[in-house]
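Morning run. Coffee first, then this:
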Amino acid sequence: MRRLVRPNRVSLPLLVVLFAFLPLPSLLAQHHSNNKHTTHNEIVALEHQWRTAQLANDIVTMDKLLSDDYLGITSDGDVLTKAQQLDRMRTRAISITSLDFSDLNIKLRGQVAIVTSLAHVQGFNDNRPLDGSYRYTRIYQHLPNDGWKITNFEITHIRGSRPTSAASLPKTTAPPPATDPPTS
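And here it is:
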């Protein structure tokens, strides 16, 4: 006996389901692009907040921006924890009177944002005048239940150079008085 082999038939409901998901990759790509754009804007807004807090010596805002495990590396090579950074602001060991940015670049890698920029800074650091151009890298990490926090920062002094373009962030003229973070 000869057995007839029939081609497999695909049911109509299965075809409908298969064709319904054909545009899915392009929709996912568009969703990913929208999320990346939204995240980019969030990081730019955080950079604005950081700048404003630094100029205003706003310890409460800086406390909210820095992660608990924050590590910063100064242009002198000193490593600062979050507590040490906030203490430097509280005691005015660092006092920034002018802070202008250019060349702001943001790389998004999953739950990490890497920010680089050129900054021209004026003020005082350990009672010494501070006036110069610096390159910095700031790392933000999206933490569960906390959102985006600054986890790392490193700054390098550029000897003899000045920023070449106008700042992309607004200038703040007179910073308000210092505030302390709430005690727990």
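The longest strand covers residues 94-109. Good start to the day.
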